[in-house]
From TrEMBL:
UniProt biased composition (Low complexity): 355-366
Pfam families in alphabetical order: Alpha-amylase (PF00128), CBM_25 (PF03423), fn3 (PF00041)
Superkingdom of source: Bacteria
Segments of this protein annotated with the region Disordered: 138-157, 341-367, 382-405
Full protein name: Alpha-amylase
Organism: Streptomyces parvus
Protein's UniProt keywords contain Hydrolase: yes
Keyword Signal applies: yes
Gene3D superfamilies cross-referenced by the UniProt entry: Glycosidases (3.20.20.80), Immunoglobulins (2.60.40.10)
Keywords: Carbohydrate metabolism, Glycosidase, Hydrolase, Metal-binding, Polysaccharide degradation, Signal
Essential cofactor(s): Ca(2+)
């Protein structure tokens, strides 16, 4: 993400990042941005036009190393590329001239047919010093201690040996940025530190006559640990820095550790399963005396020769292979010291035919208005793998145990198994709840993110990873929209950004709540902790004494409150924004007081939702890096949770451009244009503007800024808020992008579009009655940049119409009428899972752990999907057996199938502008879509439930897509009798050729007849 020069030029040790706590980004994402967001702008032309690429040799053991590359926009070098030269121990390097290019694409090879091509994606590198180590890209010079970039050593007797703990920051590269007392700072990012022993890096620097130094640490990619903005003050001699704790005159932390020379055991039970031209390789974990850190998978076969890929899991998905080709896979384990195991026994497969589907990891990239959306809570939809089910700490209390209904029940495997069910209903896009590793007492829904860089293992299975789901959906022509959260983390913080070390007292009263500590256990949501026998774990959140570095005010002192069980509550027993538990630089430190006030964008919603300081560069980089990972996997769009609680300036400056830049970088400009981003701007009011507050109204977020604000994001947010509030509702921008001009379609003006589309909250609020939803919805459309992209639904996992806490219970006829409106009016129709059978109608949508999930609107749906189903096309089922056949036979399911058939056949219903000019009738409108490039011209007249008369329309022959009725218009007027509640008429103008009216589409059903 690009930042303003003012922001880039600030000195990074205390000002550039304003960091607090451990500021480690968990893992660099492959194809990282070309320049770290918080590094200074380079001052020389050479830094802009060359790249020095360092490649780690420690785990490769090749006899030669070549860099095969192409400057951005240029041609590839001839195979095998240019030979790299020795740089320092375990590294080779090559400096590449780039001309005017801003980076390069690259792969590495030994020159004899073995390649590291980033699992088939190639590496996307920028300029300056770049390291590539086991699939991780960073920006630094790993040989700084051995080359000409060594800082000049001052004369004098004093030195400082600095050891820095890496176990909790997860950096693969560490730089020491320092100045001796009274001296000058090193150039950013500083000098590289070298591996000392497991979990530690070190560097000895000359101080001259100085007795100490000021220091900060960074990963060379813009992520800093600068002691909460204060820098570290270190003395001469040996000093350790671990978790912000400085120990002077320390013992050498590596002195007692023998060098690790023992290699891991070879992986066993290696299996390879083939599906078309994709292979999933699995194996049993290897063992090691100090722990396995990763695995190397070597593939041989095919025309591309030998390819080596690194992974940290025991499942590897290899896609995009050649058809009808034999492949052989072996696996080696690698430990932290770089010891490599013997090769596993091989697993061999032969691929099948290549499907007529997009390449893996590539978004479908078509206009999102073509794709009706089916919304699922993944953990509640369908259970394909019972081994990843988890009940959590509230399993018994909630009543879920009595129903044998763990909160984490559905999974990606179950969703993959029922893709044909969703396709058979006619949906071509699936909106899924957040996939990142969650952490709370009741986290099945996905909105309590803890590790934003890790997919929650309670959703994955062997052969059914998140990538497998994306690829399986794409193979069926279906999109995946991922729900993402930028506003908050879990109450446990965000791993890799900040996690509280302790915020509870474990005494006799609280031993039932806080697990016994297990320092060797890392929470992952799935693994059973051996001491407690539980997969949920809070042993890392308590201390018998005030923890070192505590920032929570009054830690451990008794309060006047007790728990429901009658136990005394201590200060800091539970997360709070106002107690000092969370650092102000990274988290906001207040509760929301006014939901339509400025504080709703900068304070906590709930104690389970620790509110990110999204105006902080470190937080922005953490989130952008995380979501880049999922863009790279090929998702087709993002649903932005709690979008209204982040200032529009932050969206427009940081997060939205970052999404566009990443998609463009990976997949091209057209894919970026069609990457669908829609925000939950929750405005639960029936008026056009949210209680007069433009800053809290849904349509406000679809616009770019129209003022110049401070370069500081926090100040800019306040300036924008005040400016737009003063402008008021009457002075907001307007648009005609959704409206016809007479009967003519016109090219929309998207030049002022922010990049965020919206959920149509006004229609949602009024869907107690379809007529109200229609009139309220169109009343807001001139204030939306382009309302044809609005996401329209009746109810969701949060609320029903009019902010009801229950699932919609208006009746089958009302549901049919709502659907007929949604599928033919502007916007993208969206259905919450189960509404096709009025699932759980009238039931409370969510009551947390106070009642069983089975009694709520989030109940398990898979019982209705048992059996087999095969879809021959969208809205068409070729076979169905068992309970799923009964589900598909229900009236609303039949209604949906035909609505989707009709909408798919009439472009005007998908992407058209609309007008009610010259039309009598309650829910009646005309729509048109014209595209000169494709020769498409589609014009349709629609009436829902009631009669309508259309005047001033083009003369010609019109055919109804519902009945097949034909009407010839000669005087510009067409009259349609009322079709009945839930029914509709769609008269399409026959323009001949490819724009001929389709006539009757599908067979008559319970409502469309």
């Amino acid at each position: 993400m690009r930042r303003t020069p003012h922001r880039l030029l600030r000195r990074p040790l205390a000002a550039a990042v304003a960091a607090a706590g451990l500021l480690g980004l968990l893992t660099a994402v492959p194809q990282a941005p070309a320049a770290p967001a918080s590094e200074p702008v380079a001052s020389s032309a050479a830094a802009e036009t060359t790249a020095t690429v360092f490649y780690s040799t420690k785990t490769r053991n090749w006899s030669a190393y070549y860099l095969h590359y192409s400057p951005d926009g240029g041609s590839w070098t001839a195979v095998p590329g240019t030979r790299m030269e020795a740089a320092c121990t375990d590294w080779v390097k090559l400096t590449v001239p780039l001309g005017d290019a801003g980076g390069l694409k690259a792969t590495f090879t030994d020159g004899s047919g073995t390649w590291d091509n980033n699992a088939g994606r190639n590496y996307d590198l920028g300029t300056g010093n770049i390291t590539v180590q086991d699939g991780t890209v960073a920006h630094s010079d790993p040989c700084a201690d051995a080359g000409p970039e060594e800082p000049e050593k001052p004369d004098g007797p004093n030195t400082a040996s600095v050891y820095y703990a890496t176990s909790t920051v997860g950096w693969s590269t560490v730089n020491l940025h320092y100045r001796p007392h009274g001296g000058a700072w090193t150039a950013v990012p500083g000098i590289g530190m070298e591996a000392a022993c497991t979990g530690w890096v070190k560097r000895t620097v000359a101080l001259g006559s100085a007795t100490g130094l000021q220091a900060a640490f960074n990963n060379g990619n813009g992520v800093w640990d600068n002691n909460n903005g204060s820098d570290y003050t270190l003395a001469a001699g040996l000093t350790t820095v671990k978790d912000r704790t400085v120990t002077a005159s320390a013992e050498d932390p590596c002195a007692a550790e023998e060098p690790d020379t023992e290699a891991p055991s070879a992986p066993t039970a290696v299996k390879a399963a083939v599906d078309g031209v994709a292979v999933v390789v699995t194996w049993e974990p290897a063992t090691d005396d100090r722990g396995v850190t990763k695995y190397q998978i070597t593939r041989t076969g095919g025309t591309k020769g030998t390819v080596v890929t690194d992974t940290t899991s025991t499942v590897f998905s290899d896609t995009g292979l050649e058809a009808r080709t034999a492949y052989r896979y072996t696996v080696r384990a690698v430990d932290a010291a770089g010891n490599v195991s013997a090769e596993s026994a091989p697993a061999s497969v032969t691929t099948g035919e290549k499907p007529t589907a997009p390449a893996t990891g590539t978004p479908l990239g078509t206009d999102p208005r073509k794709d009706p959306i089916y919304f699922v809570l993944t953990a509640r939809f369908n259970d394909g793998d019972s081994t990843n089910n988890r009940g959590g700490s509230q399993h018994e209390k909630s009543g879920n145990a009595a129903n044998d209904d763990p909160m984490f029940r559905g999974d990606f495997k179950g969703l993959v198994q029922k893709l044909d069910y969703i396709k058979g209903l006619g949906f071509s896009a699936i909106w899924i709840t957040p996939v990142v590793l969650n952490r709370s007492d009741y986290d099945y829904h996905g909105y309590h993110g803890y590790d934003f860089y890790k997919v929650d293992p309670r959703l994955e299975s062997a052969g059914a990873s998140y990538q497998d789901l994306i690829d399986a959906a794409h193979a069926k022509g279906m999109k995946i929209y991922q729900d993402v959260v930028h506003n908050h983390s879990s109450r446990w913080g965000a791993k890799g950004l900040f996690t509280p070390k302790a915020y509870g007292v474990r005494d006799a009263q609280w031993s039932w709540y806080y697990d016994e500590k297990n320092d060797g256990f890392t929470y992952d949501g799935l693994t059973i902790e051996p001491k407690s026998g539980k997969s949920y774990y809070n042993g890392d959140l308590w201390s018998t004494a005030e923890p070192t570095g505590n920032t929570c005010v009054g830690w451990g002192t008794p309060t006047g409150h007790t728990s429901p069980e009658g136990y005394r509550i201590y200060n800091c027993q539970w997360p709070s924004p106002t107690s000092g538990m969370f650092p102000k630089a990274l988290y906001h430190t207040c509760w929301i007081g006014n939901w339509e006030g400025e504080d709703s964008r900068s304070c906590w919603l709930h104690d389970d939702l620790a509110d990110f300081n999204t105006e902080n560069a470190q937080v922005q980089n953490y989130l952008i890096g995380a979501y880049n990972k999922y863009i790279d996997m090929g998702v087709d769009g993002f649903r932005l949770d709690t979008a209204v609680h982040i200032p529009r300036t932050t969206w427009n400056r940081r997060f939205l451009p970052a999404i566009q830049e990443r998609v463009t970088q990976r997949f091209g400009a057209e894919a970026a244009q069609n990457f669908f981003v829609f925000g939950e701007v929750a405005a639960f009011v029936n008026d056009k503007w949210n209680r007069g507050s433009v800053n809290h109204s849904a349509q406000f977020f679809t616009w770019k800024e129209r003022g110049e604000y401070s370069a500081d994001d926090e100040k800019a947010a306040l300036e924008m808020y005040d400016y737009e509030q003063q402008q008021g509702t009457a002075s907001q921008p307007v648009s005609d992008n959704a409206f016809l001009k007479g009967n003519a379609y016109h090219a929309p003006d998207r030049s002022r579009f922010s990049g965020m589309n919206i959920i149509d909250m006004r229609m949602h609020m009024n869907f107690g009655d379809a007529d109200n939803a229609f009139h309220n919805g169109k009343d807001s459309d001139d204030a939306v940049n382009d309302a044809t992209y609005n996401v329209v639904y009746v109810d969701s996992h949060d609320y029903g119409p009019n902010k009801s806490s229950e699932r919609y219970t208006g009746g089958t006829d009302a549901w049919a009428e709502n659907m007929s409106l949604m599928w033919t009016f502007r916007g993208i129709p969206t259905l919450y899972y189960g509404s096709e059978i009025e699932f759980q109608k009238g039931k409370k949508i969510d009551c947390g752990p106070t009642c069983p999930l089975a009694s709520t609107g989030r109940a398990y749906f898979g019982d209705h999907l048992a059996g087999e189903v095969t879809a021959s096309d969208f809205g068409k089922v070729s076979s169905a057996t068992g309970k799923v056949a009964d589900t598909l036979a229900t009236p609303l399911a039949k209604h949906l199938q035909r609505l989707n058939e009709i909408r798919r056949a009439v472009p005007a219903l998908q992407m058209g502008q609309y007008s009610t000019e010259g039309i009598s009738g309650s829910m009646a409108y005309k729509r048109r879509y014209t595209d000169a490039a494709s020769g498409t011209d589609s014009f349709a007249l629609v009436t829902v439930s009631g009669s309508a008369t259309y005047t001033g329309i083009p003369n010609g022959t019109y055919k109804d897509a519902v009945t097949g009725d034909t009407k010839v218009v000669t005087g510009g007027t067409l009259t349609v009798p009322a079709p009945g509640k839930g029914n509709l008429r769609v008269y399409v103008l026959d323009l001949g050729g490819e724009n001929a009216a389709p006539g009757k589409i599908g067979a008559a059903g319970p409502y469309l007849k």
